[in-house]
Amino acid sequence: MASPSQQQQSFFQVLNQAHDTLHTSTPHNLSNRLSEAIPTQYQHNPMNQTFECTSIPTILHPQHSLQAQTDSVPSYAPSYVPSYAPRPQADITYPAYHNSQPPFPSQPFPALTDSAHIEIDSNNLREDFLKLQSHSMKYNLIFGGIPQTDDDDHEDTEAVIKNFIEKELEIPSAELIQFQNVHRLRKRRDGKPRNIIARFTNFRDHERVRKSVPNKLKSKPQFSVNQQYPTEISNRRKSVDS
Questions:
Q1: Which sign, positive or negative, has the C-alpha torsion 107, 113, 116, 117?
Q2: Contacts of 237 (CB under 8 A, 6+ apart)
Q3: Which domain of life is it from (predicted)?
Q4: Staple 178 to which of 78, 83, 101, 201, CB 3.0 to 4.6 Å?
Q5: Tens of pLDDT along 190-240?
């Protein structure tokens, strides 16, 4: 019977021979070569047979890499992985929040062009000019329907107005009213008497005459007394009244 040291030495020789056979044989004759390299007594080890080994020497050398071990293994194709078409992305609808303000536009508001600025400035200037004109006409009243007593060179238009105020509007002491200017306008196309513009010196006299018109001329439609306004404002007032 062999001693334990002899059994250990023969076992290591078998392992080294099996290792060399594993790396120099093809997969087809690998089992046959291993059967030839490993003695019969080591192919089927009885369950009760044990070996006492203090240390196991390194069988694989450093130059034997993992790639060298896998070269001898037959290649295989990976399992089939089914491919799926990308799932179409559904349209996302965000909920509408109550009392929410609309989002700000991504683009800034377009800047006004120079022509737009010029038009805005022109409109502002026109309105300012109309206000100045209206203020300058604050003391003016236009009398209509008063017949002309004489030609322009000889008619005392201020006296005609004072007589109208005293008789038709029934305002006493009309001769004491002072005017800055009184004159007739151009001839009318409808054949009626030309209007008279009277500019009062005292605004209180102006208001006393204007406020008496609705009651005193209510039954006298041939006459009229109105506040003077610029032509553009007068047209605006007519369009609103109509």
A1: positive
A2: 229
A3: Eukaryota
A4: 201
A5: 889 999 999 999 999 999 999 999 999 999 999 999 999 998 888 888 788
* Secondary element (H or E) of residue 168: none
Instruction: Return the CATH number of the domain spanning residue range 133-241.
Output: 3.30.70.1820
Q: What is the pTM of this model?
A: 0.50
CA separation, residue 69 to residues 22, 59, 65, 77, 226 (Å): 9, 13, 7, 18, 119
At position 68, the amino acid (one-letter code) is A
Report residue 166 as tokens: 């005293």
Whether 229 and 237 have beta carbons less than 8 Å apart is answered as yes
Between CA 160 and CA 12 the distance in angstroms is: 152
Q: Domain map of the chain by residue range?
A: 8-41, 133-241
d(CA 216, CA 170): 8
Residue 119 β-bridge partners: none
pLDDT number for residue 47: 47
The C-alpha atoms of residue 229 and residue 111 are separated, in whole angstroms, by: 37
- DSSP category for residue 200: E
Q: Which residue has the tokens 């929040």?
A: 97
